[in-house]
Amino acid sequence: MVDEGAKDKLKGKAKEAMGKMTGDRRKQAEGKADQVKGQAKEAMGKAEERAKSMKDSPRRDDH
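and the corresponding structure tokens:
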């Protein structure tokens, strides 16, 4: 999911830049939305990776 997030962020940056060049505010907004979506996907992927590594690691009981 991290790769999908990076792809969405890159697509969003390109879309936003194209919107700025052409003066298309809707395209700019779509680009920003794609970037936010990409950031969310990256965060979700990282959280899943952390959860998996915690699940796979041996438990330590300090009590």
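(Above: one complete record from the training split.) The helical segments are 2-22, 25-56.
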